[in-house]
Write a structure and sequence with these properties.
Aspartate Aminotransferase, domain 1, 15 helices, 4-stranded mixed beta sheet, 7-stranded mixed beta sheet, 2 domains, alpha/beta, Aspartate Aminotransferase, domain 2
C-alpha cells in the first residue's frame, strides 16, 4: 500500500464520509502549485474553492501570521485588541463599507446577515413580528448550517435534516420578474450570489442585477450579495457587483479574506442594518480576533499591492477562450468571468469526474460538480505561460 493509499484509508476508516475528494494526498503548496506526498507537482485549478486567491502559502501573509501569533492570538470580544480597528478601517476603505461585522466562516457570515436583516425588518421597516421574509434563489449555495440548508434546493443538502426554519421564498436565479412577483410588504431581504459557484458557475443575464437593485430600492428590500466565492478579485473586479455598477446593502466576504491561512469572514453593510445589533444579541468568541485580523489585513494588502485583481481581469478572457478552442466532442460549453470558469460536458461523455482524474494524472487539479461540469478557479497569481501549459493538458484530456 502506498503512502497515499494509507492516508486515504485512514481518513475513510475514522472520518465521517461527508466528502468525496479526488484520490490525491497533498502535503505542500507554493503559489499556483501543490505537491502530493510522493513529491508530484500539480497546477491547482480550484484554489480551495477560491479561498487561496493569493496563491498557496503567500510569504507576506505567512509572515504576518507568524508575527502576530508570537504576540497575541485571541482575546475574545470581551476586550479590545490592537488589530481589529485597523482591519475595520482598511476593509472599509477598500470596499466602501460603513460598518463591519467580523466572523469566522462564510456560513457564519450568511447566518449573521440573516439575523441582522430580519431585525432591521422589524425595527426599521416595520414588518410585523415573526413575519419577515427573505427571498433566495434556486440552486443557491450559502453554506451547510441548519438555517441555510433549510432554503437550499439541493436534495443532498436537505434530505434528512428537517424540520427547517420558515421565512424564506425561493425564486429562479437570473429572473428579475420572478423576483419582483415574490416581493411582499414582509420582504426584508434578497440573498443571492452574483455568480452561482457551486451550481456550476452560473452567470445571470446582463442587466439582471441592475434591475434587482432597482427593485430592492423601490420596495425597501435589503440586497444581500454573497461574495464569499466571487469577491476579492476572483471575477476580475474587487467585487463581482462592480460588473454591473451596483452596490449591495449587505456584502458577505470570506474564503480569500485570509488567503487560505485562517477562517475569516465579514459582513459589510451600513449603520442602518448592522446598527440594530446591540451588545449581547450576536457575537463570536473568535470573530475579530487579533490573529485573524492581522492575516486578513495582509491578505487584502497583497491582493491590491501585487495587482492580482488586474491579473484576473487580464487573463480572465484568455483562459476560457483557450478552453473553448479545444476540439472535443465531449465539451458542450465553456463559461466564466475573470478566473471563475466552468466546462460543461455532454451527458454522453460519462461524467466530469473521470476527466478530473485524467487531469490529475497529467498534473492539474480541478473538481467536478453536478455530474457533468468541471470547475476551474486557479489562484489569481497564475501567469499566461502557466495557463498555456494548462491548456495543453486540458486539450489532451478533453480530446481523448
Amino acid at each position: 500500500m502506498t503512502l497515499t493509499e494509507e492516508l486515504i484509508a485512514l481518513e475513510s476508516s475514522l472520518g465521517a464520509h461527508n466528502y468525496k475528494p479526488l484520490d490525491v494526498a497533498l502535503v505542500r503548496g507554493d503559489g499556483v502549485y501543490v505537491y502530493d506526498v510522493d513529491g508530484k507537482r500539480y497546477l491547482d485549478c480550484l484554489s480551495a474553492y477560491s479561498a487561496v486567491n493569493q496563491g498557496h502559502c503567500h510569504p507576506r501573509i505567512l509572515q504576518a501570521m507568524i508575527d502576530q501569533a508570537r504576540k497575541l492570538t485571541l482575546t475574545s470580544r470581551a476586550f479590545h485588541n490592537d488589530q481589529l480597528g485597523h482591519f475595520y478601517q482598511e476593509i472599509a476603505e477598500l470596499t466602501g463599507a460603513h460598518k463591519v461585522l467580523p466572523m469566522n466562516t462564510g456560513a457564519e457570515a450568511v447566518e449573521s446577515a440573516i439575523k441582522a436583516v430580519r431585525k432591521w425588518g422589524y425595527e426599521v421597516k416595520g414588518v410585523e413580528k415573526d413575519r419577515a421574509e427573505i427571498i433566495v434563489c434556486s440552486n443557491n449555495f450559502h453554506g451547510r448550517t441548519m438555517g441555510i440548508v433549510g432554503f437550499s434546493t439541493d436534495p443532498d443538502a436537505r434530505a434528512g435534516f428537517g424540520p427547517f426554519a420558515p421565512g424564506f421564498k425561493i425564486v429562479p436565479f437570473g429572473d428579475a420578474e420572478a423576483f419582483e412577483r415574490a416581493i411582499t410588504p414582509n420582504t426584508v431581504g434578497f440573498l443571492v450570489e452574483p455568480i452561482q459557484g457551486e451550481a456550476g458557475v452560473i452567470i445571470p443575464p446582463a442587466g439582471y442585477f441592475t434591475r434587482v437593485r432597482e427593485l430592492c430600492t423601490q420596495h425597501n428590500v435589503t440586497l444581500i450579495l454573497d461574495e464569499i466565492q466571487t469577491g476579492l478579485g476572483r471575477t476580475g473586479k474587487l467585487l463581482a457587483e462592480q460588473h454591473e455598477g451596483i452596490e449591495a446593502d449587505v456584502t458577505l466576504l470570506g474564503k480569500a479574506l485570509s488567503g487560505g491561512f485562517y477562517p475569516v469572514s465579514a459582513v459589510l453593510s451600513n449603520s442602518e442594518v448592522l446598527g440594530v445589533l446591540q451588545p449581547g444579541q450576536h457575537g463570536s468568541t473568535f470573530g475579530g480576533n487579533p490573529l485573524a485580523c492581522a492575516v486578513a489585513r495582509m491578505a487584502l494588502k497583497v491582493l491590491v499591492d501585487e495587482g492580482m485583481i488586474e491579473n484576473a481581469a487580464a487573463l480572465g478572457p484568455y483562459f476560457p477562450d483557450g478552453l473553448a478552442g479545444i476540439k472535443s466532442n465531449h465539451v458542450k460549453s465553456v463559461r466564466g468571468r475573470g478566473l471563475m470558469l466552468a466546462i460543461d460536458l455532454h451527458p454522453e461523455a460519462g461524467g466530469a469526474r473521470q476527466f478530473c482524474y485524467a487531469l490529475r494524472d497529467k498534473g492539474i487539479l480541478a473538481k467536478d460538480t453536478h455530474t457533468n461540469t468541471i470547475r476551474i478557479a486557479p489562484p489569481l497569481v497564475i501567469t499566461k505561460q502557466q495557463i498555456d501549459d494548462a491548456l495543453e493538458v486540458f486539450s489532451s484530456v478533453l480530446a481523448a
